[in-house]
Amino acid sequence: MRSQIQGNSAPLALAYGQASDIWATGLGAVNLSALTLIYVNTSFAALSLQPQFL
Fold first, then answer.
1. From first to last of its 54 residues, what are the pLDDT tens digits of the chain?
2. Which bin fits 29, alpha (ψ -120 to 50), beta or left (φ > 0)?
3. Dist CA 5 CA 53 (whole Å)
4. What percent helix, strand, coil does the chain show, rounded to 5?
């Protein structure tokens, strides 16, 4: 009986692991794109301020 319960919970655990991997990958992509946007914005700000320093 115990092996049957483990057999039934294995696909659930596998699906949960895949879902958490997809969730973590999605969060990583969102964080990476946000950091890229911040980097691009600060780069443009630095370029637009540069002539004042010359």
1. 555 555 567 788 888 888 888 888 888 888 889 999 999 999 888 888 766 655
2. alpha
3. 70
4. 95, 0, 5
